[in-house]
Amino acid sequence: MNVLFIGGTGIISTACTELAVERGHRVTLLNRSGHAEIAGAEAIAADINQPAQVAAALGNRTWDVVVDFLTFTPAQIEERIALFAKRTGQFVFISSASAYQKPLRGHYLITESTPLANPQWDYSRNKIACEDRLLAEHRENEFPVTIVRPSLTYGNTVIPLAANSWQKSYTVVDRMRRGAPVIIPGDGLSLWTITHNTDFAKGLVGLLGHHGALGHAFHITSDEATTWDELYAATAEAAGVSEPKFVHIASDFICACLPEKIGSLLGDKSHSAVFDNTKIKRFVPDYVATTRFRDGIARTLAWFDADPARRQVDHELDAKYDRLIEAYQRGLDAARLALG
Questions:
Q1: Are 151 and 161 in contact (CB under 8 A)?
Q2: Does residue 256 surpass a pLDDT of 90?
Q3: Tens digit of pLDDT for each residue in 9-36?
Q4: How would you write the chain as a 3-class SS string?
Q5: What is the pTM of this model?
Q6: Cα 287 to chain center, whole Å?
Q7: I want to staple 296 with a disulfide (CB 3.0 to 4.6 A). Which of 67, 196, 245, 288 is the partner?
Q8: Which of 155, 124, 114, 147 is nearest to 220 (CA)?
Q9: What is the pLDDT of residue 42?
Q10: Mean pLDDT for the chain?
Q11: Which pLDDT value is given to residue 261?
């Protein structure tokens, strides 16, 4: 198949590009750099948020499938609909599992029919609005959309823990290795699902060109549900830290002190998230996630350790965590004194 990836160089999309090429698809990446990191993929240089520039770069070309990793707002979706309505037989929109209602009501398992609602996080609300617009266009004008919702997905280049820096994710491991205390939100017992990017790619590539998937939404996640305590402990083990110092702090306390964490924490990672993958397995019968977190995070740490330049620390956030822990300990000491 002839496939266009809008993006193609991120954590999720790189793995999808690699697998699509491996399976014999003709893959083109549309990004600002015009660079394809995967051998066998073509690249087109254009900024997807400049519609005239993109239209000129694409010319009259069409694709069997377009996969959009880089749309985040309803305004952007309007541009994508106008640009690709007559250029593709399937438009795959990468949404987010953070769009699901949390905490869950009625049942602990998240399915594709779980309501979409996230009052805490603009990112998620915008993804929901994008989905609504695409599905309306599908109903009214047969726009060939398929929606895919990844949960927390990682690869070699990111350490995916709840209280960490996303851009400089070695920060939490640096703290572990220095013997500094590391924050785990809540009591550490919430169940969470973290998916390796190579596993996610199996599900996504399996949906490419699947006309039965038009108008449908899917999440693609691991079946491994693990507590945050276990996820942090596995990371410490992979980092060679035998006695990490973990501090459990309530999520609302963290967010009161660090408001920038409200969306990703109170809107997402402070709740349990266990996914029912029956639907993706029904549409892609060979889909199975095979990378356990302990194995995947070991590969991730090996990647960071292979080059000191990769081990970057977010010093501003690191200092904030120190102050947050100190404030929490002072409050805890004061409470003990008052109630002792």
A1: no
A2: yes
A3: 899 999 999 999 999 999 999 988 767 7
A4: CEEEEECCCCHHHHHHHHHHHHCCCEEEEEECCCCCCCCCCEEEECCCCCHHHHHHHHCCCCECEEEECCCCCHHHHHHHHHHHCCCECCEEEECCHHHECCCCCCCCEECCCCCECCCCCHHHHHHHHHHHHHHHHHHHHCCCEEEEEECEEECCCCCCCCCCCCCCECHHHHHHHHCCCEEEECCCCCEECEEEHHHHHHHHHHHCCCHHHCCCEEEECCCCCEEHHHHHHHHHHHCCCCCCCEEEECHHHHHHHCHHHHHHHHHHHCCCCEECCHHHHHHCCCCCCCCCHHHHHHHHHHHHHCCHHHCCECHHHHHHHHHHHHHHHHHHHHHHHHHC
A5: 0.96
A6: 19
A7: 196
A8: 147
A9: 92
A10: 96
A11: 95
| Sheet containing 42-45: order of strands | 42-45, 26-31, 2-6, 65-68, 91-94, 145-150, 217-220
